[in-house]
Write a structure and sequence with these properties.
The chain is an alpha+beta fold. Helix content is about 50%, strand content about 15%. Strands 1, 2, 3, 4, 5, 6, 7 and 8 form an eight-stranded mixed beta sheet that branches. A two-stranded antiparallel ribbon has the order 9-10.
């Protein structure tokens, strides 16, 4: 049933995808491996990241050794080929761990979709490097003086059979670690959505300078960089998609599914915060009674679980529709808008249930509280999601008006 037309006639139809039984079994096997990794190694890796404020080289190697870097990539390049509906329960378990570990897995299993829209030759070369060598793709859209839309000022000029890039990007995750960067730029003289084009720029290209940015409040160890392009040349064979299709590459090909992934990550983090809070209130006593026996505490716990489950189902709705080949711009925006609000409320609640000790850096919920806030900004703020939702609502209302007029 479509979200915008709940009262449409004859709208009831099966929407749950029919996944191959062997693929479901494989997804469960991988999820079990993630849970074991989380229980046996996750805390130690997380503590090392917090202490050193960097990702150990050994952790990158461990993620690749366990195969967590190739869960969604197509099988023809050696990936597991998991659809979102089977990947999301795995991602949720990953999100119980340190936020930077979640970022690593998300970067591997999401940003490759930009390259996945390239030519067969581009996919053959880059996707096999991602799967076989554990190479990373970075996604360069956001700019420091503009936004992430059609107001971009990174310009691509066509000269003598090549494109020349000039401009600046910032907040580019794993730009320093990436083997190649997918850059969205505006064609010289271009306007609107059709003025944007995507390019694949390999690491180390002359005219591309990377400057590390300060660490963020949460997700310690996860790197971000400013990228400056100064007459950086890229070839015609490094155009990703077609000229003027950069908006589609960025939004339809990557951001929509990535927003749903961020929402699912918020579900996993929030569930971990609730689990920790539940353990605490069962052990903690005040005035001779366990906190868990107090009705006000019970109501808070129930509200947190209700919010988490609602967010989880919105994420799965987006995933199932994506796996059916449907446009999920609206579903992804709704899922992310709800999830980032939810994860803020749940981590607030967990901190409150812990009391003053929860504010200490040694508290089980203090890092979760910080890491949760990064999810607010990844792939667009709450306000951006609301704009997408409102645009869809208004467009649907206008469509219904036109249909009614034609019927009269």
């Amino acid at each position: 049933m479509d979200i915008l037309n709940p009262s449409a006639r004859d709208a009831i139809a099966p929407s749950f995808p029919s996944y191959d039984a062997d693929l479901v079994a494989r997804a469960n096997e991988i999820r079990n491996r993630v849970i074991q990794f989380r229980e046996e190694e996750g805390a130690e890796w997380g503590a090392q990241i917090e202490r050193d404020e960097r990702i150990p080289d050994a952790l990158w190697a461990r993620i690749r050794e366990l195969g967590f870097h190739k869960l969604t990539q197509p099988t023809w390049v050696g990936g597991e080929g998991l659809p979102l509906g089977l990947y999301f329960p795995i991602l949720e378990e990953v999100a119980h761990m340190h936020g930077t570990i979640r970022m690593m897995v998300h970067a591997y299993n999401s940003i490759w979709r930009t390259v996945g829209q390239g030519t067969r030759e581009q996919q053959e070369y880059w996707l096999k490097k991602l799967v076989n060598e554990g190479a990373l793709v970075a996604f360069a859209l956001t700019e420091p003086d503009n936004g992430t839309g059609i107001d971009l000022r990174t310009i691509a000029t066509y000269q003598n059979g090549k494109f020349v890039l000039n401009g600046r990007k910032h907040l580019i995750t794993f730009a320093e670690e990436a083997a190649v960067i997918a850059v969205i730029a505006k064609m010289e003289g271009g306007a609107g959505r059709t003025g944007l084009t995507a390019f694949l720029v390999p690491q180390g290209r002359k005219g591309m300078k990377l400057t590390p940015m300060p660490h963020m409040m949460g997700d310690k160890g996860c790197s971000h960089a400013v990228i400056e392009f100064d007459n950086c040349e890229v070839g015609e064979d490094e155009v990703l998609g077609e000229i003027g299709e950069g908006f589609g590459v960025a939004v339809r090909g990557f951001l929509d599914q990535s927003r749903a992934c961020i929402a699912q990550s918020a579900v996993g983090l929030a569930q971990e915060a609730l689990d920790r809070a539940l353990d605490h209130v069962r052990r903690r006593t005040t005035f001779g009674k366990a906190l868990a026996s107090r009705q006000a505490v019970q109501m808070r716990l129930a509200e947190m679980q209700i919010a988490i489950q609602a967010a989880r189902l919105l994420c799965l709705d987006a995933a199932y529709k994506y796996d059916q080949g449907r446009d999920i711009s609206l579903e992804a925006a709704i899922a992310k808008a709800n999830a980032i609000r939810m994860v803020g409320e749940v981590t607030d609640g967990a901190l409150s249930l812990y009391g003053g000790i929860g504010y200490a850096v040694t508290s089980p919920v203090e890092r979760l509280y910080r890491d949760a806030r990064s999810l607010w900004f990844e792939e667009g703020t709450l306000e951006m999601q609301k704009m997408t939702i409102a645009e869809a609502l208004l467009a649907e209302a206008r469509r219904r008006d036109r249909a009614q007029k034609r019927a009269e």
